[in-house]
Design the sequence.
């Protein structure tokens, strides 16, 4: 069956070229016979060549009779021939073959249109479209077709309607282009595409379409008419002449050519006269409503034609459109005088009377606004004399009576105005307002006394009255910050008055303040769509956008209207937005570290409180409190009631530590509530002067106020600063709850644990960062942790003497205490120096007094090893840290150790003062002490400690650069060890190559300068066994890479260094071992230089929120110094920590290595 069909199709296709009306497919991509014949059907339908349609369908019935497209084409032909039964039969066949196909749906609609109901519905839709009721017409078409059109002409009709609907032009244009592809050669479709291309300012596409139409027999005349019409609709110009020449190049003969040639000759003659060209241009601009350009063109034309009455009248009309009624009156008077014989004099006289009338009314309105009641009355009465039939002069006289408290007189004027014009809603509103002041019943009675027809006409007024009542309720709710309820009232009011611009604005503002930002933005977008080009709507939209800190969009919205059409409010808003941009530029300069340039920029602006308050705030922020105080006082001298200046002055007094004056100023502050932010700053000032109870009371009140408000920066700051105070008052649980509120108010997600919510995000602003950081600090300060760490270190040296191996097992428990954290520390330490090299059971190393001839020799303690347990307790917070402990109990020499440290800031400089007593744990002798193994000696010595202080300095403002420094001085003592002293000066600079929340790479330069009074680095009795050059200088270049992910933290680094050292001569035995020495030689002094490197890495992994594990390694290589170090630790958090991991990881430091 199928093979036979294919064979039949091939035979038919081969014969196509011989049949009349059909042409065989041209060479190109292979097309099936069915597709090609169907395209011939569509072409025939589009060009009304139904013989081609019939021939193609005849062949299609032979090839593929059940094809849905074939059946649909046969059905359309049957409908065209009026054969309804056949069409119904074909539709039934289609439903069986392809029930859900587009062809079936289109065919069903086509058959419906042949019914009386279908024809009636289509006629009704067409009537609605013809009468301009586009939305209703579209609904009628949609109900009839449902988006499915039976043929090209019906689809064209629908898309033409849509093209007339505002906002739907582009959709219609795209659909028409698709229709052209489906029905090639349809003149109506192609003509509509050209027309729309012209409307959408796409003349090249339109002309290309018209040229295409001009090559078809049926479309040539229509194309010529449309093209010539488009040219005639334009002002006469060189451009219109060029377009006529292009037109004539296409239409080279016939009526179309002659009409174009006539128009061209006429335009060329006109353009030859410059004055005429300017005159025609000016009049055309007036006709087009282009007020600005028309005014300029008419002015130029009037210079060449000063007595041209038509130009004068046009100028008067243009001035009236621009709102310049006084100028309009002057020009229209001149036009009437000069054009007494003109056919337009009636128009000018009418315009003159109208403008005189409205000029007088406007003068009355202006006088009344300025409380010049007498002047207003004179102006309104003058207007009434000009036109006693208009109601607005009477309305004005009623307003004058109300200004005089004469309600009865006002009622008479307004009743008279209502009799003149019952449709004037202004009059009805005046009377309704007057009666509403008496009672709601009185206003309804007033409306009910009007005739039924008038009442129907007043339906809008009734809606407006109800709308006004709802608006008043909404305004009251808005004043109470009940934004959702206010928004509902505004929405109900707007439903009654959908064209009220300011109701739309109020609704959007209430939605915005209630946190429904997307709904608010959509409301403003709808407002602009409903009122395109309306000055009030544009101003309201710009005002809203500026409240959303979208100043660029606000300015762009204003500039959609020419500046000459702006009112004073629009100019004022534009000026403020311009100032906002300048201030934003200044803020950006300051944020980029160019505060001096930012200050210079602001000083270039006009003197204003805003400028001076900003400069004062900046001065206070950079620590110049005196300058800030003087500037705040300058503002107060101009504006004594400036709350911002008064509050800033208090903050400056606090910064200057003039707390008495600040407290007095706070007590003089007005008692009534201020803005949330101002009251927060006042509470902070109370806290700063030491009145924490007063501050707590104020923050409690502020939290209550803020609780009902939508999320905002001010709300977040209230809860953040309240939490800071509560933390200072040791109320951590309340503080954590308030930090959670601050997170929610600032937009930090609330669907996760508080510790997870503290994780930093790259896109966070300063407020979110501060809230996350504060919350993390408090949470971790309240955290109880237990850490166990194994620490291994190895420094190669002479066996039994300077060789050093240490294994430390550390246990540290930390828990909150007061406003910091207390810890208990236990270090189990096992150190070894290895074994001496013996000969005949004895050794003579330079250790103790073994090498002395009077020592009796050394044959015991051949292996140097020590074990012990160090204990320590301590406490630390952000400012203080202290600890007290011991070197390991069980060592040969045990010492008390400990330290006290205090941190502060001096402007931008961090300062740390430290006093400490710490062991020197670089060798077994210096750390654990040893016993002299000689026969005649036997005393203990070693166990060295350094006692002294240091000052640390640092500068890092979070930018790319940082510096640090440390200066220290210590006395070094030990059991039977010569006393020594040490001074060290260290400093460094680093540059952050990468500086983000979760990744950091730095490179730097460090330097160290050390000085020891004596060289006690040897291991003989009285020496200390610790490195102690008299001069030591080194420079190093460290490089670090630190990164963290959700559950990993890495710290990788290394450095290269150069050092130079010098040691002075020193006696071998600076302390006598207890017998007469055979000799006490002096060592030789030495100097040396060398290079070295270090490599280190630490990795930490969060296994669960409660368990963490970390490993680390540290390799150093330098002249005579090659320590290696490794560690592994496990930390347990009782509360669990899901926030950012430490970067870098923080393994335990052996207690002996505390600073």
Sequence:
């Amino acid at each position: 069956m199928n093979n036979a069909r294919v064979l039949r199709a091939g035979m038919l296709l081969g014969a196509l070229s011989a049949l009349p009306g059909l042409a065989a497919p041209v060479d190109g991509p292979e097309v099936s016979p069915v597709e090609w014949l169907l395209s011939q059907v569509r072409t025939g339908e589009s060009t009304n060549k139904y013989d081609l349609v019939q021939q193609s369908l005849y062949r299609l019935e032979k090839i593929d009779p059940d094809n849905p497209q074939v059946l649909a084409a046969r059905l359309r032909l049957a409908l065209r021939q009026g054969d309804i039964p056949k069409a119904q039969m074909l539709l039934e066949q289609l439903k069986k073959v392809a029930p859900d196909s587009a062809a079936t749906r289109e065919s069903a609609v086509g058959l419906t249109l042949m019914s009386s109901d279908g024809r009636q519905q289509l006629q009704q839709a067409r009537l609605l479209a013809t009468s301009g009721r586009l939305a209703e017409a579209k609904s009628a078409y949609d109900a009839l077709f449902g988006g499915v059109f039976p043929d090209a002409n019906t689809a064209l009709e629908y898309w033409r309607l849509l093209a007339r609907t505002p906002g739907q032009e582009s959709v219609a244009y795209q659909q028409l282009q698709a229709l052209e592809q489906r029905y090639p050669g349809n003149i109506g479709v192609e003509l509509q595409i050209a027309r729309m291309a012209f409307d959408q300012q796409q003349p090249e596409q339109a002309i290309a379409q018209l040229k295409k139409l001009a090559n078809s027999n049926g479309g040539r005349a229509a194309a010529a008419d449309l093209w010539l019409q488009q040219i005639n609709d334009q002002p006469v110009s060189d451009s219109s002449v060029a377009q006529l020449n292009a037109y004539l190049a296409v239409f080279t003969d016939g009526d179309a050519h002659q009409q174009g040639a006539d128009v061209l000759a006429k335009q060329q003659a006109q353009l030859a006269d410059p004055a005429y060209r300017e005159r025609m241009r000016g009049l055309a601009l007036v006709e087009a409503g282009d007020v600005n350009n028309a005014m300029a063109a008419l002015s130029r034309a009037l210079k060449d034609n000063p007595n041209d009455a038509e130009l004068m009248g046009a100028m008067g009309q243009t001035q009236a459109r621009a709102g310049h009624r006084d100028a309009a009156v002057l020009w229209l008077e001149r036009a009437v005088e000069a054009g007494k014989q003109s056919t337009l004099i009636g128009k000018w006289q009418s315009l003159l009377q109208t403008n005189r009338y409205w000029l007088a009314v406007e003068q009355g309105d202006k006088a009344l606004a300025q409380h010049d009641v007498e002047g207003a009355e004179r102006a309104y009465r003058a207007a009434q004399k000009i036109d006693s039939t208009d109601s607005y002069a009477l309305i004005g006289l009623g307003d004058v009576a109300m200004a005089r408290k004469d309600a009865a007189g006002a009622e008479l004027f307004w009743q008279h105005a209502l009799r003149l014009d019952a449709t004037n809603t202004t009059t009805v509103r005046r009377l309704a307002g007057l009666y509403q002041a008496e009672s709601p019943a009185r206003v309804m009675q007033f409306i009910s006394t009007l005739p039924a027809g008038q009442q129907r006409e007043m339906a809008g007024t009734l809606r407006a009255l109800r709308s006004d009542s709802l608006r008043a309720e909404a305004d009251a709710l808005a004043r109470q910050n009940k934004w959702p309820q206010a928004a509902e009232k505004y929405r109900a009011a707007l439903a009654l008055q959908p064209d009220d611009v300011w109701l739309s604005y109020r609704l959007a503002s209430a939605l915005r303040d209630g946190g429904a930002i997307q709904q608010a933005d959509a409301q403003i977008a709808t407002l602009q769509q409903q009122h395109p080009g309306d000055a009030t709507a544009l101003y309201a939209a710009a005002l809203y956008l500026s409240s959303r800190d979208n100043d660029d969009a606000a300015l762009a919205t204003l500039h959609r209207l020419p500046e000459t059409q702006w009112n004073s409010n629009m100019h004022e808003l534009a000026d403020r937005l311009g100032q906002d941009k300048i201030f934003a530029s200044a803020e950006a300069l300051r944020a980029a570290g160019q505060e001096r340039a930012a200050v210079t920029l602001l000083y270039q602006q006009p003197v204003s409180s805003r400028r001076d308050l900003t400069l004062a705030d900046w001065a206070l922020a950079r620590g110049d409190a005196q300058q800030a105080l003087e500037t705040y006082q300058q503002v107060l001298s101009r504006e004594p009631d400036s709350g911002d200046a008064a509050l800033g002055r208090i903050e400056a007094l606090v910064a200057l530590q003039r707390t008495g004056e600040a407290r007095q100023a706070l007590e003089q502050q007005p008692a009534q509530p201020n803005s949330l932010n101002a009251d927060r700053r006042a509470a902070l000032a109370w806290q700063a002067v030491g009145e924490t109870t007063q501050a707590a009371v104020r923050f409690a009140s502020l939290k209550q106020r803020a609780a009902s408000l939508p999320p905002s920066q001010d709300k977040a700051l209230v809860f953040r600063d309240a939490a800071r105070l509560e933390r200072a008052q040791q109320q951590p649980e309340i503080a954590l709850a308030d930090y959670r509120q601050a997170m929610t108010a600032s937009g930090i997600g609330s669907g996760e644990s508080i510790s997870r919510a503290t994780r930093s995000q790259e896109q966070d602003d300063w407020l979110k960062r501060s809230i996350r950081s504060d919350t993390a600090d408090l949470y971790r300060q309240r955290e109880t942790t237990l850490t166990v760490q194994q620490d291994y270190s190895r420094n190669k040296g002479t066996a039994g003497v300077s060789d050093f191996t240490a294994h430390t097992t550390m246990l540290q428990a930390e828990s909150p205490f007061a406003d910091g954290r207390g810890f208990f520390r236990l270090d189990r330490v096992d150190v070894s120096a290895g074994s001496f090299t013996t000969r005949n059971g004895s050794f003579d190393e330079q250790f103790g007094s073994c090498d002395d001839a009077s020592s009796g020799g050394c044959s015991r303690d051949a292996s140097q090893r020590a074990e012990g347990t160090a204990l320590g307790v301590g406490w630390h917070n952000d400012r203080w840290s202290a600890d007290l402990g011991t070197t390991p109990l069980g060592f040969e020499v045990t010492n008390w150790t400990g330290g006290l440290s205090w941190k502060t800031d001096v402007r931008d400089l961090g300062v740390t003062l430290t006093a400490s007593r710490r062991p020197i744990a670089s060798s077994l002798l210096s750390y654990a002490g040893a016993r002299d193994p000689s026969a005649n000696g036997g005393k203990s010595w070693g166990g060295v400690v350094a006692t002294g202080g240091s000052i640390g300095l640092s500068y890092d403002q979070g930018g790319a650069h940082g510096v640090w420094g440390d200066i220290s001085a210590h006395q070094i003592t030990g059991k039977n060890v010569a006393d020594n002293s040490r001074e060290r000066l260290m400093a460094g600079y680093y540059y952050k190559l990468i500086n983000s929340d979760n990744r950091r790479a730095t490179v730097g330069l460090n330097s160290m300068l050390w000085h020891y009074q004596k060289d006690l680095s040897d291991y003989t009795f009285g020496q200390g066994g610790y490195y102690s050059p008299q001069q030591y200088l080194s420079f190093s270049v460290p490089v670090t890479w630190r990164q963290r992910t959700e559950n990993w933290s890495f710290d990788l680094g290394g450095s290269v260094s150069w050092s130079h050292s010098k040691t002075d001569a020193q006696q071998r035995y600076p302390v006598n071992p207890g017998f007469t020495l055979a000799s006490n030689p002096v060592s030789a002094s030495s100097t040396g230089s060398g290079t070295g490197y270090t490599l280190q890495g630490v990795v930490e992994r969060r296994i669960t929120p409660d368990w963490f594990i970390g490993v680390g390694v540290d390799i150093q290589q330098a002249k005579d110094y090659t320590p290696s170090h490794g560690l592994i630790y496990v930390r347990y958090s009782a509360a669990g920590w899901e926030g950012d991991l430490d970067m870098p990881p923080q393994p335990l430091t052996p207690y002996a290595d505390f600073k």
